[in-house]
Amino acid sequence: MSLAALTRLQLGLAVRKADHLERRRLLLDGAQGAHVTINGQRVISFCSNDYLGLAADPALVQAAHAALDQCGVGAGAAHLITGHHRFHHDFEAAFAHFVGKPAALLFSTGYMANLSVLTALCDRHSEVFADKLNHASLVDAAKLSGASFTRFRHHDLAQLEGQLERSTAQEKMIVSDLVFSMDGDLARVDALLDLAERYDAWLYLDDAHGFGILNDGRGGLTERARASDRVIYLATLGKAAGVSGAAVAAHPSVIDWLLQTARPYVYTTASPPLLAACLLESLRQIEAGEARRERLRSHILHLREGLVGLKIGTLMPSDTPIQPLLIGTNADAMQVSRSLLQRGLLVPAIRTPTVQLNTARLRITLSAAHSADDVAQLIAALHEAV
Ligand SMILES: *Cc1c(COP(=O)(O)O)cnc(C)c1O
User: Fold this and answer.
1) What is the pLDDT of residues 272-299, one digit of tens each?
2) Hey, whose CA ends up nearest to atom 6 of ligand 1?
3) Which domains are present in the chain?
4) How far apart are CA 72 and CA 67, in angstroms?
């Protein structure tokens, strides 16, 4: 690399820092949970996606120990060579059954699953229609697919319909987060499905934040969407499920096509089978998880009631564990986040470019692992913050 290129990087880093956009990693010791040690400080964490408190659950830890003794650590090969273990296979069947779809495929991460679905099902003859607030991995996947990429304003289905009407693409795919990751609101699944049917499009729904939570844990699909061959469903498994990976559920021919052609599936080592064993246990915990979901619902109500009349920001409308507190500028959001941290409460600021200019926010996430007192402490600290 020439020295000039290195200087440009250093300049770029300095600009990010001056714009309050510099990203730094917090250092976690011990297990993930509601109470964690971050940079050596004990804090109450309101920022993980471990919504059900399963990431360090004893039943999952035990499943990991048991599987480790049976199958070791590494998968050793890609799924299509010798890496496809019975644990992976059993999880796929159990997952498909649970979410009410005929078949499923397990991926190492949600990012890779999104790359797989869009690049395998779309090409330069396709058009992808995407809600503007979709997750970054869906944007990257659409671009990589070579399809023309058309975005519609958040929830603006009239605009989407106009775009579908004008499209001359051979294949159309409507793509949406099911629960929007920075806002906590839900896609209008049946209305999207109506449009997909009217214009003969696929409907791909990324339910990273709804699986394990909505509809007794089965995720945000409606009954019609479960039954529709044109709906392709993604759940990521590192959030409420508490483990790692992602699963796509769809018509068996879609799943077979992904298995045959999705490059991020074919050309990568299978995830460690012990993780799939943990996922099987996680699925059991999610199915029997009504008490966890009830605790989570009561925390959401408690927080929303407690923050009525707050001066420094406004809670955005959301019934999910994602409860964003809109602040405004990057600098103000950072300031509130820092003052909370001084009181032992970890709530990171989400800034541009992740969200639009002047909509910087604290992305508060709640978990069944929190106690009512944890939530009460956050409410009190926010009322005292300036
Ligand atoms: C987290 C997330 C992903 C990526 O999933 P990983 O398993 O973390 O790679 C994809 N889509 C959405 C909406 C997400 O929130």
Assistant:
1) 999 999 999 999 999 999 999 999 999 9
2) 110
3) 27-52+290-384 (3.90.1150.10), 58-287 (3.40.640.10)
4) 7
